[in-house]
Amino acid sequence: MPEVRRKQKESFESLLRRFSRQVQQSGKLLSVRKKRFYASKKNRRAQQESALRRLMIEEKKEYLRKTGKLQGPFPGTKAIMKL
After folding, report:
1. Beta-bridge partner residues of 71
2. Whose CB has fewer CB within 10 Å in the chain, the N or C terminal residue?
3. Residue pair 33/39 in contact by the 8 Å Cβ criterion
């Protein structure tokens, strides 16, 4: 972490500006932003389970669409179910 000490008769704004510049130059901020949204990969079993879940949902949607209980023929849109 960059360290900045206040000089004599230095305003807070200039101190903050120097600190911000040192943080930018150190590259710490960039690495933190990269790590912030990092999502680790799923293991093989979790991938298989999510794939099976997607298939089951698609099959259920297709069945409901064929029986007329699901409206909205456009894929990717939220469907409205009749009750």
Report:
1. 80
2. C
3. no
